[in-house]
Amino acid sequence: QVQLVESGGGLVQAGGSLRLSCAASRRTFNDYGWFRQAPGKDREFVAAIKWGSARTYYADSVKGRFTISRDNAKNTVNLQMNSLEPEDTAVYYCAVVRDIDYTVGDYWGQGTQVTVSS
């Protein structure tokens, strides 16, 4: 089982940017995703990236503002978040996702808090 550790969260003003990173404990050939959970809400899909093709997928709410990428040599998956809005405030989680459904995670990190002030 792979362990995932997220980093890069913090407090930022609306319109600002943050870059989240997810470090895997070992090299895997899995697809990866980012999810988030705001207070009082269910966890929701944000973005995913395929291992082989590096094809990316995004939730409509972040399309055009967030970019997911991966560095297979470093076993990391990143989420560049631009034009942040207060509605993006949440705990962000990295996950190994299923190849047949990238909106479902199987292994999870502990999460990193992102707070966007207005």
For the termini, the CA-CA separation is: 39 Å
Q: Count all strands and give the number.
A: 11
- Give the radius of gyration: 13 Å
Helix/strand order, N-terminal first: EEEEEEEEEEE
Proportion of beta-strand residues = over 45%
Instruction: List low-confidence stretches.
Output: none
Helix content: under 10%
Structural class: mainly beta
Q: Which word captures the global form?
A: globular
H/I helix tally: 0
Characterize the main sheet: 7 strands, mixed
Q: Indicate the mean pLDDT.
A: 95
How would you describe what is shown here?
The chain is mainly beta. The protein has no helices and eleven strands. It has strands at 4-7, 10-13, 18-24, 31-37, 44-49, 56-58, 66-71, 76-81, 90-98, 101-108, 112-117. The mean pLDDT is 95.
